[in-house]
Amino acid sequence: MSTFAGIGAALSALTTNRRGLEVTGQNIANANTEGYSRQRLNTEPAGTMAPGRWARASNFEGGVNVTSIARLRDSYLESRGHVEHERQASATGRLEVLSEVQTVFNEPGGTGLQAKLGELWAGFADLADNPGDLGARTQLLTRAKDVATALNSGAGELSDQFSAQRAAMTDTTADINTKAARLADLNDAVRRARQSGGTGNELADQRDLLVMNLVEATGAKAVTAADGSVGLSLGGGWLVQGATARAVDPAGATTLSGQSANPVGLVWQDTGTAVSGVGGAMGATLSGLNNTLPDYAAELDKVASALTTSVNTVHTAAFTKAGVAGGAFFSGTTAAGISVAITNPADIAASGSATKALDGSAADKLSELANSATGADVAYRTAVSKIGIEANSAKTVLNTQTAVTDTIDSARASESGVNLDEELTAMLTYQRSYEAAAKVMSAIDSMLDTMINRMGA
Which of 48, 345, 352, 450 could form a disulfide with 361 if both were Cys (CB 3.0 to 4.6 A apart)? Predict the structure, then answer.
């Protein structure tokens, strides 16, 4: 290698190590940046073409070339990360829905429907002991109204939860559409950056963070195309493909009462066709709107129906103090529509005989409905048990899934996260290499000065 070629080799070393310091500095600066992938400088030895047969080795130049600035990511771990994060988002959404439903039942507790039902049956027992007592009759009506109000309130809360979650879908879909459009733009930006000779690494980090967010939100599947762009497939259609994004809109009922006839879903904005296979957080929301909330509204309706049927069956076969056949005690067979049909305490039929005004046998039968195998208490306890089991199961699933997701994220961080100790070591290595290359350059400069200016002096 000639002396002048040595300058070239030393210069390439200076340039390479300077770039290495820049890459290391970039890693350190973004150690806490969400979605950032650490970068690494890849190099190879420089040289001229292969020597001729009789060429001498001293005729060849040397040095180092930068081949690339690699973005350290493991495609398998990233794919696993998508799967586990989507599952965690789905599990989180399901638990949130069930937790909201639990607040409607509010059991066990002294103010829940179970306690009010117990007070109602106790009121019938008090009336059986004192059929002619106006106070007992008035108190019974008050307790019956409390039960009806509790059922009305429960149905109203479930309806409000439905309306709130359905309204939130509008904001959620708008966010999905914004991120999908941004992902398409980043696909194009990364492609143009690489075509112009840049790395596009930081743009790719932003892109992959958006991909993860959209996977969590929709359950879409990420697909890497031949040109390096990342597409998102959702239910057989493309949410994002290359530099093109499609938008989605919420569709279906906006009230709980209309859900059965018009289920809630997503549709493609450009065609109006339904989006299938939605998962992640949006999938949990759709499941809550189409399954969980209607199911528990139906459970409350079963309680109301059982209460109305069982009480009215006994009450209409009984008699008032005046010997008149009893009418319906409750009206309505749904939780939202149930109410006390009697307004006058004297119209309560407590007697089992038209000729025995103070016979309390009918009121006694009504009090025993608390133990009926087909009564309101059994229906309500079934609903409470169901929500408790489902919520507990959802919590267990989420805890398990969180542990799995954390394990995958740790592996991803080990591969692509910034380790400051490693970066400091790399920084010192590049620094020392740069200083050594500078000394080589200085030594060659001194040699050339001697050769040019002092020889023959």
Answer: 352
